[in-house]
Each structure stands twice: as structure tokens, then as C-alpha cells.
Write a structure and sequence with these properties.
The protein is an alpha+beta fold and 447 residues long. The chain has 3 domains: 111 residues, no CATH class; 97 residues, Pseudouridine synthase; 190 residues, no CATH class. The protein contains 12 helices and 18 strands. Helix 1 packs across helix 2. The chain is globular and about 80 Å long. Pfam families: PseudoU_synth_2. GO terms for molecular function: pseudouridine synthase activity; RNA binding.
Length: 447
């Protein structure tokens, strides 16, 4: 009997089968077993109590049925002497609890853990490649362009519509796991890049490699530049495509925020960033507003489409910062289903964020926001329930609701991480600078 399963989260899983349909990358449903360690507040509670309290998407009866059907197992922790004693009494002793009656009455103790076996269904990603080919001689990994690759880290041009790390319902259909199955290499987080955003992304191959990026971000020793397509004629004198493309060639020299891309008529937006998560309870749904600064420079304006190509430099790195700041300036990214007022799924919530840079100023008492939160939550629930019942399909194997195909345009936005520079303090060394090709939608603008 194996009394000590590996510490990694996944205990047993095979490389999932990817299917490409209608421009989407789908993972064929699969079974896996995950090891779940316990938080302190779980001690002296039964598994059924924990599941009922923590995973409210199901009620107690449904969780109980999952336990009865063998979805969960508990592994009790024994010290070496205790284990030897138990084995001396019963050579067939196992620290595994798998029977329903044993599981539901066992109170967890420190260092116990449980496993969950499930038929996994994952949301879809956007297909970015025909074959996801890896050819390091051609600077390709899983069909993505490699910008830099060494023993400490890899820098790639991430496609839009692909989540970076396992999160929520995504696991195997995440970038790091896709790369892991292809290279057998674990990758470490360096900084955040939203699922819908494309462009420069660095991943550490070692913790030291990831730390290099973390430290430079904390020390404000890096410059990040994004390209965005926005609705309307953005203020300022256009830099011009020709000048912009000329400046793109300076990536291998010593740089600064002035020398990289001079923003002669920049627009500066300084306003706090916060999130309202209607999937969790009030008041935790309102995150703390944090100071944020973004700078923007008009590159080109397309009068026919009434759209502008804008160079963006985030000074801080808050979640959805550029998207929110552009919205507050009145020049949203068209088609952004979160922050484009003409296309948002959440018009009431987004109108609140647009008009309240810092909700604490107008609502010093957080409890005064409860009626508004109820409105935002109802807005979210109505969206979830908007699919007609006849369009919902269920898995014949496990009964779970199947994911429906999302519209392609909802999987990506016109926001691209274009250049990332780490300033080298040694004057005799070039900076570390990573730059992608221009996204197709940016090349459509003329001088």
C-alpha cells in the first residue's frame, strides 16, 4: 500500500486529447485524481461538512451522493511508530478510507488529505495553430513563436483566448499545462497576462528564472508596452505608423521610457482599479481600490472605421488596468465584452466602475453598496440563465452540463503585449528586451 502519494496536485492523469472544432481548442473529457491538502479551518470537520460549506454549487445531498459513488477517498496521516503498530496488528492495514460510512463520520486531523476522482470537462480555448508543432530550430513551441529561450526562462508570443495558468474550470486547457505535456518541463509564473490578451509572456523554467522577472517588476526596473485598438479618435497628435515601425527597431539598444517610444502628446490616466466579483458574497465581492497609472499615445486614426491604434504603457500592473482606464477615458476597446459599454455583458456593473473611480468616496460605508451589489448579482445570474433549456446538453457518462461553443469574438480582444524591456544596470550590457511581431489588426492602420 502506498501511504504517501506525491505532493503534486495531480496524482494520476494522462496527456489529454485536444480536438479542434470551429476555431476552438477543446479537451476531450477525461478522468483524473487530485490530491487535496487541508487548511487549518478544516480540522475536526468531516469531508461532507467541508464540501457542503466550501462548494455551494451543490447541496449536501448531492455531495453525499458523490461520496457514495466513490468520487472521494481519505488518507489518514500516521507517524512511523503508529503505522508500524497498526501493521503489526493487521498486516493488511490501509490508511485509505473509501467506504461511505467511514468517510462521512471521520473528522480530519492535521496532515490528512483526501483525493477526488472526477470526469473532467473544461471550457474551450481559442485555436491558434493547425498542429501545435514544436521546432526549437524554428523558434516554435506548440505552434507559438519563441522570443527567447534559455535554461532559466522562456519568452513566447502568447495567443489570445488562452488562459496562462490553471484557474477555475481550466486545467489541461491552460498554457502551462499544454507546454508541460509537450516538453515535460514545469513552468513558473512571472507576471499576469489576461486570457483574452495576446503578446509577450515570460515563464520561468526555474524558480530563480521566475524570480528575475518578479524582482524587476517590484523594483520598477522594467518597461511594458501594449498596443490597443480603441473606438473613436483618441486625443493627441498621431505618432504615425512609419515612425512607430522605425522605433520598433531599437529594441536591442539601451532603453528607457523616453527613448523606447517617445510619447510626445501622451494622455495620462491615474485612477484606482478594483473588481466586483458577483460570483462571491458581499462585501468581499468588492476588492480594495488600488492606485493605478497608465500612459497612452495615439499612433494612427482610421477615420472610416472611427478607430484608433494606441500605444499603451502601464506604470502599475493592476488587473484589467488598461481596459478599465481606456473605458474611463471614453475610448473603450471595441468588442471587449467586459468593458466596452456597447458590448458588455454587465452594463450596470460596468457603468458603476466607469463613474466611480474609487467607490469609497461616494460610499464610505460599505454596507450602502449592498443594494447595488444585489442588482449586479441579478444581472450576472440572468446572463447565466439566459441559455434556453433546449440548447443545454449533458454528458452521457457523468451527467455534467456540457460547455457550449462561445462566439470566437468573445475569446480575444484588441489588446496586445508588444514589448517588454528589463533595464540592465550595467552600462556595458544591453537590456533584456522582448518584442513580438505586430498583430494583424494593428497592420491594418495606415500612416
Amino acid at each position: 500500500m502506498d501511504f504517501n502519494l506525491p505532493n503534486n496536485k495531480i496524482i494520476l492523469t494522462k496527456k489529454p486529447e485536444a480536438i479542434f472544432v470551429n476555431g476552438l481548442r477543446k479537451i476531450k473529457p477525461f478522468y483524473d485524481v487530485r490530491k487535496c491538502t487541508l487548511k487549518g479551518r478544516f480540522f475536526n470537520k468531516t469531508l461532507l461538512q467541508i464540501l457542503t460549506d466550501e462548494f455551494r454549487i451543490k447541496n449536501q445531498e448531492e455531495h453525499s451522493e458523490d461520496i457514495r459513488n466513490g468520487k472521494y477517498k481519505i488518507y489518514t496521516h500516521l507517524k512511523k511508530a503508529e503505522l508500524e503498530e497498526m501493521l503489526s496488528i493487521n498486516p493488511n492495514y490501509s490508511n485509505e478510507l473509501s467506504k461511505y460510512e467511514d468517510i462521512v463520520k471521520y473528522p480530519f486531523k492535521q496532515n490528512d488529505y483526501y483525493t477526488v476522482s472526477q470526469h473532467k470537462h473544461e471550457p474551450y480555448s481559442l485555436q491558434w495553430s493547425e498542429d501545435e508543432k514544436t521546432d526549437f530550430s524554428k523558434n516554435l513551441i506548440c505552434g507559438m513563436d519563441i522570443l527567447e529561450n534559455n535554461d532559466e526562462y522562456i519568452v513566447i508570443d502568447k495567443p489570445g483566448g488562452l488562459i496562462v495558468h490553471p484557474s477555475a474550470s481550466y486545467y489541461e486547457n491552460s498554457l502551462t499545462n499544454i507546454l508541460f505535456h509537450d516538453t515535460n518541463q514545469k513552468f513558473y509564473s512571472t507576471y499576469r497576462l489576461d486570457k483574452v490578451t495576446s503578446g509577450v509572456l515570460a515563464l520561468g523554467k526555474t524558480s530563480a528564472g521566475a524570480k528575475k522577472f518578479h524582482e524587476n517588476i517590484l523594483n520598477k526596473n522594467c518597461f511594458k508596452y501594449y498596443l490597443a485598438k480603441v473606438r473613436g479618435k483618441f486625443p493627441g497628435k498621431p505618432m504615425g505608423i512609419v515612425k512607430f515601425e522605425e522605433l520598433c527597431k531599437n529594441k536591442n539598444v539601451k532603453g528607457s521610457d523616453v527613448e523606447d517610444f517617445p510619447m510626445e502628446t501622451e494622455v495620462v490616466e491615474i485612477s484606482p482599479i478594483y473588481q466586483i466579483d458577483t460570483k462571491i458574497l458581499f462585501p468581499k465581492a468588492f476588492s480594495e481600490p488600488k492606485t493605478a497609472e497608465s500612459r497612452f499615445q495615439l499612433i494612427s486614426y482610421n477615420k472610416k472605421c472611427n478607430e484608433s491604434l494606441v500605444l499603451c504603457r502601464p506604470i502599475t500592473g493592476r488587473q484589467h488596468q488598461l481596459r478599465i482606464h481606456l473605458m474611463r477615458l471614453g475610448y473603450p476597446i471595441p468588442g471587449d465584452f467586459f468593458y466596452d459599454p456597447e458590448n458588455t455583458f454587465y452594463p450596470k456593473k460596468i457603468d458603476f466602475i466607469a463613474k466611480n473611480n474609487d467607490y469609497r468616496e461616494n460610499y464610505p460605508n460599505i454596507d450602502d453598496l449592498k443594494p447595488l451589489f444585489d442588482i449586479f448579482r441579478k444581472e450576472f445570474q440572468e446572463l447565466v440563465e439566459s441559455d434556453p433549456e433546449e440548447s443545454i446538453e449533458y454528458c452521457s457518462e457523468c451527467g455534467a452540463q456540457e460547455y457550449s461553443d462561445p462566439p470566437i469574438e468573445e475569446m480575444r480582444i484588441f489588446l496586445h503585449s508588444f514589448r517588454y524591456r528589463i533595464v540592465e544596470p550595467d552600462e556595458n550590457k544591453n537590456d533584456l528586451c522582448f518584442q513580438t511581431k505586430l498583430p494583424t489588426w494593428a497592420t491594418e492602420f495606415k500612416n
